[in-house]
């Protein structure tokens, strides 16, 4: 007598759509540009010296890089200096922001997520994958929640076999 067992993959049959935010990770190199290196005696920015640096610096070294501009020194740096740096870096760089590497990472994810066609998730039950091989910033989870809430049936966090309910549309 032959016994036949039918196994049903309940996760596959559930109709859940898994969204892995890791897939929106930008592979480009991340660097910090610290404007403190342009300060006179580490205290102040001298416009003439800074403009000479801007004129002579090889900006192509920032090609395809993601740059976070900071000032780690306790100095007053005029706003225009950051703007001038950004204007020279941006033609080469993938992304230029003012802030920490964490701010840069959040910016990269938010920009990538903004390109998602959220209508492709209309009326779906979406699981935002929780375990990742790379660190996904919390800002990315908040952003995807903001983007999907108007169109999806529900949002869950975790893995399809073990989720935490986040949002359910009231019909």
Question: How would you describe what is shown here?
Answer:
The chain is α/β, with parallel strands linked by helices and 171 residues long. The protein has two domains: 10-26 and 107-168; 30-93, no CATH class. It is built from five helices and seven strands; from the N terminus they run αββαβαβαβαββ. The strands form two sheets. Strands 1-5-6-7 form a four-stranded mixed beta sheet. α4 packs parallel to α5.
Layout of SSEs?
Blueprint: H1 10-13, E1 16-19, E2 30-34, H2 47-56, E3 66-70, H3 79-89, E4 95-98, H4 101-113, E5 125-129, H5 138-148, E6 154-159, E7 162-168
Parallel strand pairs: 1-5, 2-3, 3-4, 5-6
Antiparallel strand pairs: 6-7
Give me some keywords for this one.
3-stranded parallel β-sheet; single chain; about 20% strand; alpha/beta; 2 domains; 7 strands; 5 helices; about 170 residues; 4-stranded mixed β-sheet
In short:
The protein has 171 residues and is an alpha/beta fold. It is built from 5 helices and 7 strands. Helix 4 runs parallel beside helix 5 (138-148).
Biggest β-sheet: count, sense, barrel? 4 strands, mixed
Strand content: 15-25%
Provide the number of structural domains: 2
Query: What share of residues is helical?
Result: 25-40%
Overall 3D form: elongated
CA-atom Rg in angstroms: 23 Å
How far apart the termini lie comes to 50 Å
How many β-strands, per DSSP? 7
